[in-house]
Every structure is written in C-alpha cells, then in structure tokens.
Write a structure and sequence with these properties.
The chain has 354 residues and is mainly α. The protein is built from 16 helices and no strands.
C-alpha cells in the first residue's frame, strides 16, 4: 500500500484526541486513591486492550512474536519499562499542573527526544532532513512545532504566575508548580522512550506482513511488547504504594471507617474507559505512522502536537483558563494555531516525499 500522508495526519489527530482525553474519566473516580485507579485503568491500557485488539486485527500474533529474534523482543520491552516511568509521572503531572500546562511541558521535551534521536542514532538524519526539499519542509514543520509548544508553555506559566494560590487550587485541586515542573521534565524525557521502543521492534512489522496482516495493523504486535514493559514499571510502583498505604481494600469497597462508600461499578467502568482510551492513542499512532512514508519518524511530532492541541482544549473546557487575562488566552490560541500549521507543514513534506 502506498503512503498517504494526509490520511496519516488524520490518524495522528485521532490518536492525539485519545491521548488528551484519557485522563478525563479519571476525574470522575470517587474515593479511590491514585494508585488504585491508575493501576486499574492501566491493566486495560497496557495488557487487555493491546493484546485483544492485536489478536483481532493481525494474523498469527503469537507465531509472529515467536519468530522474531530475541533482541527485537527484549528491547521494546526494556524501552517500554523506561517509558513506563514517563507514563507513571505523566499522571502525576496532570494532578499538579493541570491539563494545559502539564501537557505542554511534558510533550515539548518528549517531542524533541522522540523525533530527533531515532534518525540521529540510525545515522540518516542528514539524508532524511538536510539533503532533500521534502526533508527541509519536514524540518521546518518540526521547528514550527517547537515554537508552538514554547508559546503554549509560556502562556501556561504566565497564567499560573498571575493567579492567587486560591485560584490555582480552584482550577487544579492539587496544584503545585515546583513539584509539577520537576515531575513534568522527568516525564517528558522518559516518555520519549516509547518512540525508541517502536523503532527497536521495527523488524516485527515485516514478519507480521509476511503472515498476512494488512499494512495498517503491522505495528500492533510491537505495541503489545512496549506496553507490557510499561505495565511492569507502573504495576511495581502502584503495588508498592498499595502496600505502603494499605489501600488494596478499595478494590472491594473497603474504605476508612465512617467514610462514604466508593461507587464501585462507576469507578471500575471509568477506569476501564480511561485505560482503553489511552491505548487508542497508540492504536491510531501505528496506523498514522504506516501512512507517513520515509519520514515515519515525524509521526512522533504530529502525535505530540495533536495531544497538546486537544489537551489545551480540554483545559479550556474545564475552566483552567477562566481567570487568565485575555492576552494570555490569545497567546495560547496563537500557540495552538502554530501547532495546527505544523501538522499541515509536516504532512505536506511527507506528501512530497511519497
């Protein structure tokens, strides 16, 4: 199947919408500690959804993975474990900074590392980006993306600096700028390891295609490996917190004496929705990447930009910007405009190459 960059951009936008929206159902979880709802949703994100959907949409999933060389199996899992640290602290970033500022900082760093390091590591950075017109256009799109991220992040930082402590808590219940920024920086760097995991598992695509899987779905087996690595990291951390806080009883409705019981069915359903939606960001990511041709690595930039676009929209929907000055609101919309422009530029560069 020939590359179709406009369709790839659409898939990346759908993935970005899923990534920006996954945390919304968690806001409805009542009287469960963080480690309980994060692990509950994560089981759907990292285990149930990847394996179920890959088994449905690909041919001979287990046979393909068994045929892959051991390093091609191990390295995606290792990078998945490193990415797990980013995903783990990504949730904490949303708690401390809110959707708008948190996503801008995390994803800005994630964009730089996840997009540029793979071609540099593979030794074809110059050939792909510097020596062709299409490559130059993609590089321009990457630059516009970073400009948009910087504008959104600056707007978020200025908004938070102008608010009173009471206003910050009203917008984000657990707001803590210093703690949030520290967590966001760590999360952004580690989250970029997901792109490395996908690159490490690239040979699996050929094996899956040889087994008869269609081009849109050949990346799904790699997701099973990378996300299993993420499960290991997150599960170990959450289990430690559960043991420390003695919070396992929340799963069966046990809470503090005299406390209002948690709505168990609603909590489980919300976590299932949140976890499944998070998986779908990568489901659409692999579909989008399959359409981007020789500049497939630029998929990471498109993915990050679309997450920030939709994450900022959610921030406005939840009134995180209601007390911000008009100039700051215009500034953040300007940043969103740059990100939308960047996706168009990158898509055009990929189209020229195809």
């Amino acid at each position: 199947m020939n590359a179709n960059p406009p369709l790839g951009v659409l898939f990346h936008w759908l993935g970005g919408l899923a990534a920006a929206s996954f945390y919304v159902p968690y806001r409805g979880v009542k009287r469960w500690p963080w480690e309980i709802y994060w692990l509950t949703g994560g089981i759907f994100s990292w285990l149930i959804a990847p394996w179920l959907i890959a088994s449905i949409r690909t041919n001979d999933l287990l046979g393909v993975l068994h045929a892959a060389p051991m390093p091609v199996i191990v390295w995606p899992i290792v990078f998945g474990m490193l990415w797990g640290f980013g995903g783990l602290t990504y949730g904490l970033t949303m708690r401390y900074l809110g959707l708008s500022l948190g996503m801008a900082v995390v994803l800005g760093l994630c964009t730089v590392f996840g997009t540029l390091i793979p071609p540099i590591f593979q030794g074809d950075f110059a050939a792909k980006l510097l020596d062709t017109t299409s490559g130059n256009i993609v590089l321009l799109g990457l630059t516009v993306t970073m400009a948009g991220i910087v504008v959104v992040a600056l707007a978020g930082a200025r908004k938070d600096a102008a608010l009173s402590p009471e206003q910050k808590v009203e917008a984000v219940a657990e707001f803590d700028f210093r703690k949030g920024i520290a967590v966001a920086v760590f999360s952004g760097v580690m989250s970029s390891c997901f792109a490395f995991g996908l690159a490490a598992g690239e040979p699996i695509k050929a094996l899956s295609a040889a087994a008869g899987t269609g081009p849109l779905w050949t990346g799904l087996p790699i997701l099973c490996l990378v996300m299993f690595g993420g499960l290991i990291t997150n599960a170990l951390w959450c289990i430690w917190l559960i043991a420390k806080n003695r919070s396992a009883g929340a799963w069966i409705g046990r809470g503090e004496a005299g406390a209002t019981p948690a709505p168990m069915l609603a909590n489980f359903l919300l976590c299932a929705v949140a976890g499944t939606v998070w998986y779908f960001q990568f489901f659409f990511y692999t579909m989008g990447e399959s359409q981007m041709g020789r500049f497939g690595f630029s998929s990471w930039t498109l993915h990050m930009a679309s997450i920030i676009i939709f994450g900022t929209l959610w921030g406005f929907a939840f009134r995180e910007w209601k007390d911000a000055a008009l100039g700051l609101k215009l500034m953040v919309w300007g940043g969103i405009g740059l990100l939308v422009l960047a996706t168009i530029v990158i898509g055009y560069g990929n189209w020229l190459a195809s």
